[in-house]
Design goal:
Elements (H helix, E strand, L loop, with lengths): L1 E4 L6 E4 L6 E4 L2 H7 L3 E7 L3 E4 L4 E7 L2 E6 L5 E6 L4 E5 L11 E5 L19
Parallel strand pairs: 3-10
Antiparallel strand pairs: 1-2, 2-5, 3-4, 4-9, 6-7, 7-8, 8-9
Pfam family, one: GFA
InterPro entries: CENP-V/GFA (IPR006913), Mss4-like_sf (IPR011057)
Family: Belongs to the Gfa family.
Length: about 120
C-alpha cells in the first residue's frame, strides 16, 4: 500500500496495488502542467482510493485524457485516460519512498531546450 496527496492536504490518496516503475513524459502538455516534465506511475483505477475528492478539479486536455489537480493548492496529481481502467499518479505526490524507479522517457521530441536527459534510460519520441 502507498499513500500520498497534494501540498495542502485537501486531497489524499491510497493505492492498494504495488507501484510499477514509471516514466517521464516530456510532451508540451506535461511540461506546461508540471512546470518541467511529468514523472508518474500507472495504477489500476480500482486500486486507487481518493479522500477529499471534492477538492480535485479535472481539466480535459484532449478528447481522451483528463488531468486532475487540487483545486485548493494546485498540486498536479492525476493523468486519467478516460477510456482505460488505469490512472497515472504523480510520483512526486507520494509520501516517502515509493519503491518505483523511472524506466523510460517518452515524447522526448517535445522536451525543453534548457535541460539534457543523461540518465541512460530509454528515450522514445
Amino acid at each position: 500500500m502507498a499513500t500520498g496527496g497534494c501540498l495542502c492536504g485537501a486531497v489524499r490518496f491510497t493505492v492498494e496495488a504495488p507501484l510499477k516503475d514509471g516514466d517521464a513524459c516530456h510532451c508540451s502538455q506535461c511540461r506546461r502542467m508540471s512546470g518541467h516534465y511529468w514523472a508518474s506511475t500507472d495504477v489500476p483505477a480500482a486500486d486507487l482510493e481518493v479522500e477529499g475528492v471534492e477538492h480535485v478539479r479535472w481539466y480535459q486536455s484532449s478528447p481522451k485524457v483528463m488531468r486532475g489537480f487540487c483545486g485548493t493548492c494546485g498540486s498536479t496529481l492525476f493523468w486519467n485516460p478516460i477510456y482505460r481502467d488505469w490512472i497515472s499518479i504523480s510520483l512526486g505526490a507520494f509520501d516517502g519512498a515509493t519503491g518505483a524507479r523511472l524506466h523510460s522517457h517518452i515524447f522526448v521530441s517535445g522536451k525543453g531546450d534548457y535541460y539534457d536527459i543523461t540518465d541512460g534510460l530509454p528515450q522514445k519520441d
